[in-house]
Amino acid sequence: MLDAKSDTPMFTADDAVCPVHAKPDHPAIPPARIGILVANLGTPDNYDYWSMRRYLNEFLSDKRVIDYSPFIWQPLLQGVILTKRPFSSGAAYKSIWNEEQGESPLMTITKAQTEKLRDVLVKRYGADVRVDFCMRYGNPSTKSKVEEMIRDGCQKILFFPLYPQYAGATVATANDQFFRALMDAKWQPASRTVPPYFDRPSYIDALAQSIERAYGAMDTKPDVLVCSYHGVPQRYLMEGDPYHCQCQKTTRLLKERLGWDDTRITTTFQSRFGPEEWLQPYTVEEVARLAEQGKKNIAVCAPAFSADCIETLEEINEEIRESFEEAGGERFTYIPCLNDDDAHIAALEEVIAENLSGWI
């Protein structure tokens, strides 16, 4: 059954029955099932001020994202930041909003990914596999989807954050929220979380195919492909977060798969926030430097994102493009994320199948 508002499965326990040898007043129990719950970052419900404020408050209050002392950070957040930022962020979301569906592109794409994954996984394993999605911030919440799966009889849940590379501010906080949801369950299902998949050949091949298709459609090939990853503070690397290394390896594996040399591809980091030093080079500065060095035709892709979102559709395709063009760049091509591309779905199916081993 579908929720008319969200078009996502609304689980029910209509087939729940009382155990054969139990007393008549024993609670009904649905048949045992396996849940596969994919997770993405999240999205505001709308781009108006209060929707943006609620979303930003949840996001920027996450200590995995902003790890400053709350005694220092929260007065700043609840004061000047959440007074002003919902306006600028709302304008950015409005510029990319899917008005037809009344939702952000990230929501539209995540629904499409989930639908395709559901089709292939039910075909592979049968109808007792439940496939759904949740968001770390905003709706549908992780907690609500875990509760739905438990009500539907999912005694085992595979939780899959859709981030190719591991970072504390992405994968770890998604897992944290999943475990918090399990803490409230009376009958806690067995659970697994999916590790990073950035170096899986099927993922790298799907990424390479998207680059090859984009280049194949161009009359003149770009001078450089910029692989722009979401940034994190530099000190996270020094504190043991493997994200920087996994991003660098992603670019190297992509370069090797494409058969390119080092001059044709580079790694950069975007979305810097706050006063401290973040991973470098910064994308917005690097594209300007490339233009000034005579690289007038570049392409940009975003291998850290499984779906196009505000950071790709607005930041890369608007802000970073503008930086390149103002520095003298002439041709800027943004290559979309893998989204619900069939090769991407096949790679995700492969990851899921491997992590279901022994369960099904």
Structure description:
This protein has 360 residues and is of the alpha/beta class. It folds into 2 domains: 33-196 and 343-355, Rossmann fold; 201-334, 3-Layer(aba) Sandwich (Rossmann fold), CATH 3.40.50.1400. The chain contains 11 helices and 8 strands. The strands form 2 sheets. The chain has a 4-stranded parallel beta sheet, with helices on both faces. It has a 4-stranded parallel beta sheet with strand order 6-5-7-8, with helices on both faces.
Kindly summarize this structure in a few lines.
With about 350 residues, the chain is α/β, with parallel strands linked by helices.
For this structure, the CATH topology of the largest domain is Rossmann fold
Tally the helices: what do you get?
11
Helix content: 40-55%
Structural class: alpha/beta
**Assigned CATH class of the largest domain:** Alpha Beta
Q: Which radius of gyration do the C-alpha atoms yield?
A: 22 Å
